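Subject: Alanine racemase

B.,
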Amino acid sequence: MSPPAAPAAEPDAQAVLTVDLDALGANWRLLAARAAPAECGAAVKADAYGLGIDAAVPALARAGCRTFFVAHASEGMRARAALDAAALPGRIFVLNGFHPESAPFAAYRRHGLDAVIGSPEELAAWRDARAAAGGDGLPVAALHVDTGMNRLGFPLEDARFLPLGDLQAAGVTLVMSHLVSAEDPAEPVNARQIAAFDHARERALKAFPASLANSSGIFLPQRPVHDLVRPGYALYGGNPTPGRPNPMLPVVGLVARVLQLRQVPAGASAGYNGRWTAPRPSRLATIALGYADGVPIGGSGLEGRGAQVFAGGIPCPLAGRISMDLSIADVTHLAEGALKAGDTVEWLGPNADVDALAARCGTIGYEILVNLGRRHRRHYIGDGTGA
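Prediction pasted inline below.
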């Protein structure tokens, strides 16, 4: 299925981002079916990978998702508000740990958030806050065990010997870790992490449900799905199996307006520092999209490399450096009159998915998604139940 085609830009918008919520819901259902009988959650951090928490979380909940993961408590509050507004259930875990100086326990309780605990200090603070709060309906916790990422989480041996009573007092209901290189099935670290996670759970941690697999982890031959999987990138249309056909539906489309067209002679330069030179008399289109709108400057059209846009399905390479608000495309090869000021060109859509654009920008699709600009007019399709 082709990516959703974005509509023509509105009169007061210079770029339009289309988000297909039905495709988002269908992607969640595909991953849930593949992970079954494990539960399928959803990572909605970074504003649902740039698509918008307020729209994405209810759509995923309508598709059947009941467990969500955010990075910060403030994101969790937005996710909870979105669920409440739609009268939908869901538990929300805050991945970056419990830091009462940023978000006190009372905020977690008030907004129905659960903490992912990754250090002895966090565990003690969370346990003590629960004890002081008392009563029913207290937030619970997930215990984060580090199996090789060396970012957050308890070291393996420390986690194995945590007293069961401390974990119960802290309300631990889940033990989790994070894969380092799941997108590469041949990477030996996958097997090492899976074994390390199993080893960590041999003692007291065996009493709790477990979660290890991210988007790509769901597709590993070892199937480390345990009790709960936590996909993120694949939900939003990114390929969890690089080098193989993408099993996910595309979710985003992006078009931007052409502001001007101009003829330049051979040898004329374009863009900052004059780093692109016209190899022949050329027609250039100035487009209302730049790095302030989420297009990495690494996509600049220099030395035969860089991003491209599509006009009527025909690829047009960028010419010169991407500016803050603008970019330039070489459209010399288009038929005369095929493109005019006011028309739109495609950045993401039927001809280019997020992984393809990222490759041309020298980055990863994650960065493209999370930096989708706030200046775009956002157009949402569906509600998560279709496709």
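The chain has eleven helices and 19 strands.

T.
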